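Changelog note: in this version the structure field was regenerated for every chain. One regenerated record is shown below for reference.
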Amino acid sequence: MAEVFQFKPKATLTAAENLEAFISKCRDQLTVFGSDIDWKEPVWPNITVFAKLGVITRKPVQGEVQDPEFIDFAKAYFRYQQGHRPTGTKNESKALRAVEAALLQVNGNANIDGISISVLDEAAELARQNYSNGAAYHCGREIERLAKFLTENQLVSSAVQNWVNPIKRAEDKNKTGKEAKKNREEKLPSDIALNALAEIFANDSIHERDIFTTSVFAMLMSAPSRISEVLALPVDCEVFETDREGIERYGWRFFAGKGYEGDIKWIPTVMADIAKTAVARVRVLSENARQLAKWIEKHPDKFYRHANCPDVADDVPLTMEQTCMALGFAHNTPKTCRSCLKSRGLASEDGVHTLNSLWQHTMARLPDDFPWFDKDKGIKYNDALFALNANQLHGNRGCIPVELHKPTNNFFNNDLSPRETLEGKHSSIFDRHGYRAENGERVKLTSHQARHLLNTIAQRGGLSNLEIAKWSGRADVKQNRTYNHMTEYELVGMAERLDPTKALFGPVGEVAKHLPVTMQEFNTLEHAAVHVTEYGYCVHDYTMSPCEKFRDCINCSEQVCIKGDYTEKLDRIKKRLEKSERLFSLAEEAVVRGEMGADRWYQYHKKTVTRLRELVAILENPDIENGAQIKLRGNDFSQLRRVAEKKSIEAIEKKGKESEEAVMLDDLKTLLGGGLG
């Protein structure tokens, strides 16, 4: 385990002296990333690169490395923070690059002691310019964290601990318009891709690459997981339990990514059989690799006798053919044998090699972390579900039964998408089986699209945000929104299903065709308030809240029109329709021109025109008797409902679902029409 310490500044020292002590301790005492790490190098392999802002290469040249006045602090801070709170994203690197660039721009030098509010503001602005919206937000959070750390640990002379990240979290993607449609298409898998993989999986292919790809994707479709989480599953991941109703439940035990602790991820009943089949197929696929790993741990100095190994003593000289057989190389001709052995840097002659010498060669090629497949999760190669042999899934090269291989995320994703740069040399699983999109384009998919799809399905099914986050192995519930790709129309439909009171024809009681209404008529109304509008009546209760539609009555579900009630009201509706159609046409033209914000006006006017046309059609329908009350459906915003919902959630979390406060708030939500409105 890496050595860490809690840095404590000394009040008797200056900021510069405390800074020097901090850097020295992080360099000489910390063992995070290994005690043998080369401190002087700007590149820490497989960890990070201490390069300037905007430099993307992993091998920076002179001038691309961070300033000498800054880099030692950057290394110390990065190592210290990753030691105390290790993360996969390592956002400290982004923050350090932005701060270094800001110091140089504002002060003309990169000394961290020159940090100030102006420098931090400039760093945030540089983050906005150089990173995506989401990355910039996280960079800003790390800059804020850095500022507090510097001040609290007396490493700088200025007080910047109160600086707050000005970069707002990226807003949810617009649910409407062309941009929204494009975003959904990018994040969600296509039907052709899903159906293709389902067909290949159902056909039970004999090709190992197909078995691997379809099984992994079947597992991704069984529960919303990251590809790294699935590939790190142990071979005994399956969990069977019987619930209180006596129903057997099936799940996987594993450790999630992004800071979420290990847990059992339960598989929906409808996917349980598919998930079991996928795990069983992968278990067969990795059997030899796991056996090899066990053998190496127990017999590190003795050749692994696989099925095709020549039956000779360990110290007997081998022919080239026997040598190739032992290593799993092609051996049909002497020429082939020579080519295979030369490619591995081995002598291509008879009588040169023995099983003992080949084993030494093989042991030198063990994975760096052997016996650990995933050390952080405590999984060895002999216990990893996805431990494979080298070249086992390669289409052209023969499987090497005495070498181990750990499949990566890219290894899986590469089989789901065409690689244009390798035209003629690479075929995705869709290419191999002849699947194309309707327009003739090559089919492509990513592992993360399955996660987006399952989260969206869960949202459609009404699963709570807490349940979705837990099921997805997500530490922050707020991250759910990134994976929710329901359209506005789906959201409206969900609200309507949850709130049956919202109907096209809502019987709110008989309203006389004259005003004012009598007390008896008023008392028989479902709503204890009726207000005259230019189109009919409003049934909003102003004792509960003010008008929240700003008199946009057409788009309000509390607007009621009476069939046959005064022809001038129908005329007003028709005039409003003509005006709205003109505005809709203008908004449509603005969208085509690409004007900013036009899509929102387009959607608003489209909705208004649609509702007005429906309303006119109903009011002019001779099959509907006069006096009928017409109330168009809607999903209106209500601040009161949202407050009730929030307070209800808080009450349930603190006191339980059956508490008096929670029950009362639930009743209030029901009274208000249910849901958030």
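Spot check on this record: The chain has 24 helices and 13 strands. The longest strand covers residues 248-254.
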